[in-house]
Amino acid sequence: MAAASQPETTAELDVLDSREAGGVFLRGGGVRMLAYTGAVTTSIAAMPFVTRHLRPTNFGHYVTVTSLLLIVAAFTEGGIATLGVREFSSGGNSERDELMGSLLGMRLALSLAGAGGAILFTALAGYPGVVVAGTAIASIGLLLANLQVTLAIPLTAALRLQWLAVLDFTGPAVTAAGLVLLVVVGAPLLPFFAAAVVSFVVTVSITAALVRGQVTIRPSFAVRRWRRLLSESAVFAAATALGVVYFQIVVIAMSLIASGHAVGVFSLAFRILSVVNGIPLLLIGSAFPILLRAARDDGNRLQYALERLFEGNLLLGGWLSLLVIATAPFAVHVMGDGGYAGATAVLRILGCGVAATFLAAVFAFALLSVRMYRSLITINAAMVVLAVVLCTVLIPGQGARGAAIATLSLEVALACAYALALFRARHDLRPRLGTAARTVVALGLAFAVAFAAPLSPLLAAAAGSATLAVAVVALHAAPRELWAALRRTAVVSPPE
Predict the structure, then answer these.
(1) Tens of pLDDT, residues 391-407
(2) Burial of 235 (0-12, 13-18, 19+ CB in 10 A)
(3) Do 156 and 85 meet the contact criterion of CB atoms below 8 Å apart?
(4) How confident is the model at residue 480, as a pLDDT?
(5) What is the DSSP-derived secondary structure letter of residue 8?
(6) Which residue, among 107, 125, 117, 126, has the nearest Cα to 69 in the 3D structure?
(7) Whole-angstrom distance, CA of residue 303 vs CA of residue 306
(8) Is the Cβ–Cβ distance between 428 and 453 less than 8 Å?
(9) b/e 46-56 (16+ beta carbons within 10 angstroms → b)
(10) Is-above-0.85 flag for pTM?
(11) Are 472 and 442 in contact (CB under 8 A)?
C-alpha cells in the first residue's frame, strides 16, 4: 500500500538541503542527548542491583551473551539502516514504500539466520547451558531490535530527532525496570535475558505507530527486489560491522580464555564504558543524513560540517575521558561493591581511549558519506585481526587488565587509521586545527588539575571539569556553533 502522506515526508526531507539542517541537528541532537542521559541514568540505577545479585561469574555470562548478540546484530544489520537512510534521503516518494518493504523483509531473514548462528556457536563452544538458553531468548530481542532500527529509518532521514529521543529513553528505561524487578523477586540468571525483549516490544510498537502513515510497515519477501539492495548492503555491512565487533571480540575472547571471575571484572568495567561510548554513535548518527546530502551536493558544506563535528567530539570525548578516569573508583564501588576487585584499574585504562572512540565515529561516518567503502573494509578487517592477536598475547598473562590494554590499543589504532585513510584520499576535507589545538591545551589543563592533588574521585572530576570550562571559554576552544546553538540560531553550513 502506498504511503498516505508522502508529500509531508518530502517536505520533512527538504530540511536536509536548507541552512536550517544544522540547527535542526544541534537542537534535536541536544534533545537526544538529554534522552540518552535519562536512559543512562536508569541503566546506572539498575546496574548495582544486577551486578550484586548476579555476582561476577553470572554477570560475566550475561555480558558475554550481550556482546555475542551485538556481534550478530552488526553482521545481520547488513548495512541496512545506513543504506536505508541514504536511499530514503535521496530517493523519490514512489520509491520509498518499496524500499521499506524490502528492507524489512531482508532484516527479518538476516536476523533469523544470525540468531541461529549465535545459538549454534554457544553450543559448539561449550558454554554453560544457561548461556546457550540465554542466547536463544536474547535472539528474540535481536530480531525486534533490528526491526525497530529499520522502521526508524524515515525518522532519522527526516531529522525527526525528538521522536528518536523518546525511543532512546523508552527502551533502556523499560529494560532497567525489568532488571530491577527480577532482582527484587530473586530471579536466577536466565530470566534476565528476557528483560530487553520486553523493551523492544514497546519500542517497535511506538516506532511502527509513528511511521505507519508515511511508509509501509509490511515486510516484502520478493527476493528479486532484494538483489540490488543486498549487493549494496553487503558492502555497507563489511564496511561498518567489522568496525563495531572488535570491541565485542575482546569480551568473547575473555569468556573463552580467562576465568569466570576475570570475565566478570572486565565485564563490569566494559559495561560502564559502553554507556559513554554510545554517545558518539548517537550524535554522529543523527548528523549522518546531513553529511550524506552534503557529500552528494556540496563539498564545502561537507568539510565545514566535519570540521565542526571533529572539534565538538574532541572536546566532549576528552571531557568524558576525564570523568571516567577520575570517577573510576567511585563508579566501580557503586556498581559492583567489593566483589569486582581490580575493575577500577581496568576502567581507567579503558577510559583513556574515550576521546579516540569519539573521533573514530566522526571519521567513520565521513568515510561512509564519501563512499570510501574499500578503505573501511580494509581497516576494519585489520582491526579484527589485531584484536585477535592482542587478546591472544595479553589476556592469558594479564587477564582483565590485558583485555583493557587491548581495547585501548584498538580504539587509538582505529581512529588513526580512519583519519589517515580519509585525509590522504580527500585533502579538501582536512579540518583546520586551530580550535582543536586550543581544545587539547584546555583538556591538558583540566587533567593536570584533576590529578595533580590527591583528591577524592568526585572532587577530582569536579575540579577538572571546572578547569576545562574556564579554559574553553578563555581559549575559545569550542566550536562557535555550540554557543550559537544555545541561542537556537546555529547552522551547519559554511558562512556566507
Answers:
(1) 999 999 999 999 999 99
(2) middle
(3) yes
(4) 62
(5) H
(6) 117
(7) 5
(8) no
(9) bbbbbbbbbbb
(10) no
(11) yes
